[in-house]
């Protein structure tokens, strides 16, 4: 599957953004767990959130719990990450990734990656 993350941008502290992870034409998100990862400047890529292929289970990194909402619409071949109450530590490049089977939080377990989208939180 080919994925593309979009929806990033420049947002003020405390603002909101919604990221989308879209499967390219001819591809389907069905049966893929989707993970969202963030890479801040000078830091390793870290797990932010993830959702199973059927939307039945969702995981969040502690720092985003209560602020981010992960969801998906398989009929639209799209997964979403609603990000609210953004703070400076949320700045980074956000990636979505797909994987089969058991849900994982480790980037190396994901086989399919979308091009990242930049999120910058400003004052």
Report how far the terminal alpha carbons are from each other: 37 Å
Order of helices and strands: EEEEEEEEEEE
Strand segment tally: 11
Which sheet architecture does the biggest sheet show?
7 strands, mixed
| SS strand fraction | over 45%
Radius of gyration: 13 Å
Kindly state the mean pLDDT as a whole number?
A: 95
The low-pLDDT segments are none
By oligomeric state, this entry counts as single chain
Shape: globular
Considering DSSP H and I runs of 4 or more, what fraction of the residues is helical?
Answer: under 10%
Q: Total number of helical segments? A: 0
**Category by helix and strand content:** mainly beta
Structure described in brief:
This protein has 123 residues and is mostly beta strands. It contains no helices and eleven strands. The strands form two sheets. Strands 2, 4, 5, 6, 9, 10 and 11 form a seven-stranded mixed sheet that branches. Strands 1-3-8-7 form a four-stranded antiparallel sheet, with no helix packed on it.
Task: Give a quick set of tags describing it.
7-stranded mixed beta sheet; mainly beta; globular; 123 residues
SSE diagram, text form:
Layout: E1 3-6, E2 9-12, E3 17-23, E4 33-39, E5 46-51, E6 58-60, E7 68-73, E8 78-83, E9 92-99, E10 112-113, E11 117-122
Parallel strand pairs: 2-11
Antiparallel strand pairs: 1-3, 3-8, 4-5, 4-9, 5-6, 7-8, 9-10, 9-11
Can you put this structure into words, describing what you see?
There is one protein chain. The protein has no helices and eleven strands. It is an all-beta fold and 123 residues long. Strands 2, 4, 5, 6, 9, 10 and 11 form a seven-stranded mixed beta sheet that branches. It has a four-stranded antiparallel beta sheet with strand order 1-3-8-7, with no helix packed on it. The chain is globular, with a radius of gyration of 13 Å. The model has no long low-confidence stretch (mean pLDDT 95).
């Amino acid at each position: 599957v080919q994925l593309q993350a979009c929806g990033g941008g420049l947002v003020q502290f405390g603002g909101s953004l919604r990221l989308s992870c879209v499967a390219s034409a001819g591809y389907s998100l069905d049966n893929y767990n989707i993970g969202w990862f963030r890479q801040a400047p000078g830091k390793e890529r870290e797990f932010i959130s993830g959702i199973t292929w059927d939307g039945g289970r969702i995981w969040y990194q502690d720092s985003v719990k209560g602020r981010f909402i992960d969801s998906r619409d398989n009929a639209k071949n799209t997964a979403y990450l609603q990000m609210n109450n953004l703070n400076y530590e949320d700045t980074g490049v956000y990636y979505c990734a797909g994987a089969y089977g058991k849900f994982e939080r480790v980037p190396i377990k994901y086989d399919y990656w979308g091009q990242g989208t930049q999120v910058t939180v400003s004052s």
